[in-house]
Amino acid sequence: MVPVLMKDITFKLLRDPTMRTGIFLAVFLVGGTVLGGMLVPHDPFQINMNNRLQGASFEHWLGTDQLGRDVFSRIVYGAKLTIGLSIFAIMIAVIIGVPIGLFTGFIGGKIDAFLMRIVDGILSFPDFILAIAIAGMLGPNLTNVILAIVLVRWIVYARVVRGLVLAEKEKEYVLVSKVSFSSTFKTIRMHLLPQVIPDIIVMAAIDVGKVILLISAFSYIGIGAQPPIPEWGAMLNEGRTYFQVVPSLMIYPGLAIMLIVLCCNLLGDGLKNYFDIRKRRG
Amino acid sequence: MRRILSIVASRLLQLLIMVSVLSFVTFGLMKFTPGDPIRDLLKVDDVIATKADEEKLKKEYGFDQPILVQYGHWILNVMQFDLGESIISKRPVMEMILSRLPATIALTIGGMVVLFLIAIPFGTLGAAYEARWPDFISRWLAMLGASIPSFWLGLLLIYFFSLKLNLLPVMGKGTLAHFVLPSITLGIAMAPMYIRLLRERLISTLQSSYIEAARARGLSKERILFFHALRGSLIPLITMFGLSIGSLLGGITVIEILFSWPGMGELIVNSVKQRDYPVIQGYILIVGFLVVITNLIVDLLYLVVNPQIKQGKESV
């Protein structure tokens, strides 16, 4: 039963061209990273001044930077760091935002109306600038950027989930659950939560890409990851003065960001088609 | 008229809620922050800080008082249009930010021009040739545009147009040529969502009954597309501008840093690095104000271009 189901899902996923491109891109990126790590292992922090600003070679796939560090292993290290942090930030935002959205949407009433007024007020403020301000108040470093992102993002999840619950809670099956003396908690867990999960997965997939862009932009303008951390935006900032001589220092970190974000967007759109979100919502 | 008043009132309420919540949050965060601006300030001046110096400065800026008192003082001053003065430069915050505003507005206008030059052709192509290759290209361009980091795009543009081809200046502000690269970067960064929106709108407009009627009258395909469908589909773009003004003000920050463009974004990032709290607080207030005012203008414009709303038929 289970293998058949898995095959079924895989088939349905791969039928969608967007999803297919996304999966291939993901496989390519992960494969290249793992393979490179095995074939030419370098320490991303190892400075070697005799070997600076080298072009691509068999030993250094993407050359070396202004301090003689291997660019490929720095990008791989940066990938683990940035992707890990983005997924972490979105997970925390989901864990805080989704329950709040479920409960305020389901219970409703004055508290809900009041909270949503505040939430709408905050949401119409640019999240990037709010994150800058928060990072500014707490001090510019990577941890505070992540904190700022979580502080801003959970609100979005609460808002979206609440909207979905409002549409769903008047439907008969929820009313049946209510009149059959199920507790609020049980109704939410058994009936409403499963309804919002596909939407959250799609949103989270696209959001991971957005957060990667945000972290790298923050690091590029110098208020995120600080050198020598090989975060992609920070790498671009650090190597800025050498671009004219060695353009590859500029090309690769940016390309890495773009491919990863593209991958998130493709997977997100593919999942949207898979779950048929537009059709379900009418 | 009643409708206009209610729009204005609801936007003002939004401004009040937004700014009071956000400024309170940032004030609270400041309190929790390890280290404080006074010690940072003394470090900047390269003075060996004594406890007495620190206390004196703290008193001067009111940092020795409880957080709620500080917040109250700030609010009272804001009501008199006084945002305090910068810890670093000692200049009034209001003046500092407003002097940067024209450069940011100029860049915004430049970016919007590029944005519409990109979004209208590609959105229209996508809709006119739905599910065929022009649509495929326009969708892929939107997807790529949404994935590319704007500062990297800017770096690539600088590399090719300024360093390799020597056509345009690298950074700074002054001549019209300085405008080109920052505007293109901003325009491309903002374009994807407009392309998608215009395409979707046009596709649904092309299926509506008044387009059917135009077709029945034997009008040419191009005439229908440009004179009938496109005109109706541009209105949602105005709303989109209101909704995206926030992300524009955010995105422009990075671009200003990249091109050393002397706008508000450059000011705030430098203030964050120096932890110049009064400037950060003032900036939040001014950005909130800009966002709400833009949306108010968009609301009112919408009344003008779409008379159905004026008659109270909002749902149409």
From TrEMBL, chain A:
Keywords linked to the UniProt accession: Cell membrane, Membrane, Transmembrane, Transmembrane helix, Transport
Pfam families (UniProt xref): BPD_transp_1
Signal peptide: none
Residue ranges of the TM segments: 21-40, 83-106, 211-229, 249-271
ABC transmembrane type-1 domain location: 79-268
Keyword Transmembrane helix tagged: yes
Xref: InterPro entries: ABC_transport_permease, BP-dependent_transpt_permease, MetI-like, MetI-like_sf
Keyword set includes Protein transport: no
One Gene Ontology cellular component annotation held by this UniProt entry: plasma membrane
Name of this protein: Nickel ABC transporter permease subunit NikC
TrEMBL record, chain B:
Keywords: Cell membrane, Ion transport, Membrane, Nickel, Nickel transport, Transmembrane, Transmembrane helix, Transport
Annotated GO MF terms: nickel cation transmembrane transporter activity
Subcellular locations according to the entry: Cell membrane
GO cellular component: plasma membrane
Superkingdom of source: Bacteria
Organism: Paenibacillus abyssi
Family: Belongs to the binding-protein-dependent transport system permease family. OppBC subfamily.
Ranges of residues in domain ABC transmembrane type-1: 101-302
TM ranges: 12-32, 103-128, 140-163, 175-195, 234-259, 279-305
Membrane topology: Multi-pass membrane protein
NCBIfam families in the cross-refs: Opp2B (NF045470)
InterPro entries the record matches: BPD_transp_1_N (IPR045621), MetI-like (IPR000515), MetI-like_sf (IPR035906), Opp2B (IPR050045)
Name of this chain's protein: Nickel import system permease protein NikB
Gene3D superfamilies associated with the record: MetI-like (1.10.3720.10)
PANTHER family in UniProt: DIPEPTIDE TRANSPORT SYSTEM PERMEASE PROTEIN DPPB-RELATED (PTHR43163:SF6)
Subunit field text: The complex is composed of two ATP-binding proteins (NikD and NikE), two transmembrane proteins (NikB and NikC) and a solute-binding protein (NikA).
Record flagged with keyword Membrane: yes
